């Protein structure tokens, strides 16, 4: 089916604007009567997303769709998105602006900003470092899963539940798959290089070994290719707005991908085991052929052009899959490594500091904007996807610390919502924590640097909403950012966790939140001043989970 391109006629550009910045003033009465102050949305993108302004575009589309759903009038349906560059002190920041009329007939205005940090990690991490990082995460997660998890928060040592044996099994599976991929990659490169450099004149690898390895890799390649095609179909349906084919966990495509993913895990481990077996057997005898049957006979026929082409195709496919897997690990997981493990690799310390400073500067500029003789925003909504949730968490803590020390931006009083989705914050707190035995002083100092877990008074206005999915291994319900229920003061706002059933395709779920009705409901309710929980649950795609 041919897709029709919709004209981008709902966007217009505005002239750049210079605004006063970084000076707190009392609320101004200079706004025209009946006109509410704009609401600011500050968003931070996640790992591997390399395009400037993409997050602004994504949030603009969410807000615009929310306006169209709540305002059926022609003006609401034709809501415009204006783009502008504003000068805030030393920073020039791009923003999107949406103007509309709310249900009560009042003029509303939304300004959307982003923190863009992707170039700061580009080219900084190698595939070897990523594999070491993942192995450390796997072993560390297994080890800590058998320990009590104590965390100093809210002026007390909190005794929190560690993940159970199911998480231990996943860590073991992760380590096994990583070891298998690494072994397969090494063998493919070694055999390919030997055959290419010696032009088949060397005794190793023998023709029979190449035949056996080709059969091994053929099984793995077929399963991996089927999985890749299924993901490609899911991606197409998303881009073509055909979500009805994938919008429920019981959908055929979802079950197909889940089954192929499980089969791919088995095929990866099994193929590595078979390759190891054939390498050992052929080391003893070059005449042994491990695979029997028509396929092996066909692939071993060196005089047949079709069999030679098939062998070349199998190895080329595996090399391509190996390259794509490497690129995925470096592009996505490399960002996580560069940001959350400076204590493990000191070379990334400066990178982490640069990302933190970039996000803090951008957020500080938004909070510091003045307009019409007063502060530009009385309400600011902060959003973070994936690793971006960790970055905005750190930025908010840094700004709250500045407030406590007298910076005067009133971050606590003006931040109405923190919306995280696909967030690894629980994993960064549990797997990659730096706590050691008898480290109470360090734990207390760490909490002091994080006002969001230092005192519930710092979250007096803030409503923290977290969307996660069981099909998204990066995300999780945030259980490690609140005091134990018995230590939790009455009436405080704990993290609100919601399982997003829209993000239902394994792994691919990590990017599906952007189209989720639950996220749109959360942001829409935050903008409209309505009950987020009710709006999210009424979206039909989320259920509340324990916090």
Describe this structure in words.
The chain has 547 residues and is an alpha/beta fold. It has a domain at 35-124 and 343-544: Rossmann fold (3-Layer(aba) Sandwich), CATH 3.40.50. 48% of the residues lie in helices and 15% in strands. The chain has 16 helices and 15 strands. The chain has helices at 54-70, 74-77, 127-145, 165-198, 207-239, 252-284, 294-299, 305-340, 349-368, 387-404, 411-414, 425-430, 440-448, 509-512, 517-528, 532-538, and strands at 11-13, 17-19, 39-44, 81-88, 91-101, 107-115, 149-153, 156-160, 370-371, 374-375, 380-385, 415-421, 463-468, 496-500, 542-545. Strands 1, 2, 3, 4, 5, 6, 11, 12, 13, 14 and 15 form an eleven-stranded mixed β-sheet that branches. The two termini are 45 Å apart.
- Poorly predicted regions are 1-7, 23-30, 242-250, 434-438
Strand tally is: 15
Strand content: 5-15%
- CATH architecture classification name of the domain at 35-124 and 343-544: 3-Layer(aba) Sandwich
Which of globular, elongated, flat, extended, rod-shaped describes the shape? Answer: globular
Report mean pLDDT, rounded to a whole number: 82
The number of helical elements comes to: 16
Structure class: alpha/beta
Largest beta-sheet details: 11 strands, mixed
CATH topology of the domain at 35-124 and 343-544: Rossmann fold
Radius of gyration: 27 Å
Helix content: 40-55%
